[in-house]
Amino acid sequence: MTSDLKTLGWTQHFTGQLSPDEFETQTPMRLAEVRRRDVVALSANLARHDLALTGEHVASEFAVGDFVLTDGDRITRRLDRRTLISRKSAGLISDTQLIAANINTLFITTSCNADFNEARLERYLAIAIEAGIAPVIVITKADKPEDHSAEDYQDRARALYRDANVLAINAKDPAHIAKLEPYCGTGQTVALVGSSGVGKSTIARGLTGEDLAVGDIREDDAKGRHTTTARSMYRMHAGGWLVDTPGMRELALHDAAGGIDQLFADITDLAAGCKFSDCQHQSEPGCLVRTAIDAGELDQDRLERWRKLKDEDARNSETVAESRARGRKFSKHVRNTMKAKRARRGED
Ligand SMILES: Nc1nc2c(ncn2[C@@H]2O[C@H](COP(=O)(O)OP(=O)(O)OP(=O)(O)O)[C@@H](O)[C@H]2O)c(=O)[nH]1
Ligand SMILES: [Zn+2]
User: Which InterPro entries does UniProt cross-reference here (predicted)?
Assistant: First the structure.
């Protein structure tokens, strides 16, 4: 059973979670689409199964890429994930939305032009590291670099994180797309992030031979509202899977303190040796961070980007209670504003 499942990305990590009874009676599947009331799951032979969400299961607990056990018609259990990408949903009450599960490699995409931005790359790197996903920085448009050479852009990207592989490619050239294929073989699952226009669709087309269809299928929910769903898992020529969900393109940082610490290990290692444990690395005596900057061993810009990223993470990681308190304050503000408006119009 498990050998065919490898095509889906199944590993020992999942086999180990099955009881002998489940091993006999259940069918593992991988979720390719998660909709409001049902999911599309792939079985080992890559057949698509429409499974209704019934009983205790609700859509918000599943992500594209999840492995589940089924009795053929229904999901009986979700298996523990290797990795998970989520985001805090917009709105007054903070809620975590699951974006994709069991991704092995994140292609962090930018271009050899003004899109290249260290802070943005670091944000995506922190998200990947926090999730336990291997980051690969892909810099497109190496065939027409602007302002600097493609090698310069590569060097700048390499300086951000020593464990990230960095590739500069022409996404339109199949020979360059082949450089990504070592990450895309059978059993591997990848995802693409990056700003609009950097070449994500071009890379995806090169890897899968297909055009991604983000958000082009509409489904009515119970209240008659439209919700957007789309195909989200694409088979790559190299044998693996590319996951592309609408949320993947709007990833924001949250709850990634560990990822940030690891990404900025150069700074956090130094900071651990500062004289004061709460050192702000401004002008305190015995500050090893300042000493490194003065000695030209650490870049002042990097220190500032680290601070900003930590602030952003803290802001986006507020607890539900904090968020609700903010929400209540906001509703009160809205009520008062509306009241004042009506009063001005003489309606009250
Ligand atoms: N010369 C060159 N053009 C590229 C390269 N990568 C992408 N392009 C072009 O850049 C434009 C934008 O590429 P897309 O693949 O649509 O970018 P995207 O990231 O998918 O953009 P969104 O769909 O808006 O998120 C297209 O005209 C591509 O043909 C590259 O490496 N070299
Ligand atoms: Zn210090």
Answer: G_CP_dom, P-loop_NTPase, Ribosome_biogen_GTPase_RsgA, RsgA_GTPase_dom
**Quick one: 248 exposed, middle or buried, by C-beta within 10 A (0-12, 13-18, 19+)?**
buried
Residue 105 Cβ < 6 Å to ligand 1 = no
Per-residue pLDDT for 249 more than 80? no
Look up the CATH number of domain 264-316: 1.10.40.50
| Residues 162-221: tens digit of each pLDDT | 889 999 999 999 999 999 999 999 999 999 999 999 999 999 999 999 887 754 444 444
In the CATH hierarchy, which fold is given to the domain comprising 99-250? Rossmann fold (3.40.50)
Q: What is the CATH number of domain 2-80?
A: 2.30.30.140
Q: What is the spatial distance between Cα 90 and Cα 189, in angstroms, rounded to a whole number?
A: 27
Q: Can you give the pLDDT at residue 92?
A: 54
Equal CATH topology for 2-80 and 99-250: no
Mutate to test the pocket of ligand 1, among 201, 249, 250 (most ligand atoms within 8 A of CB): 201
Q: Which of 241, 184, 317 is nearest to 65 (CA)?
A: 241
SS3 label, residue 221? coil
Q: Are strands 165-168 and 134-140 parallel, antiparallel or unpaired?
A: parallel
Question: Helix or strand or coil: residue 244?
Answer: coil
Residue of 333 and 225 predicted with greater confidence: 333
Q: Per-domain residue ranges for the chain?
A: 2-80, 99-250, 264-316
The owner of tokens 């339109």 is 172
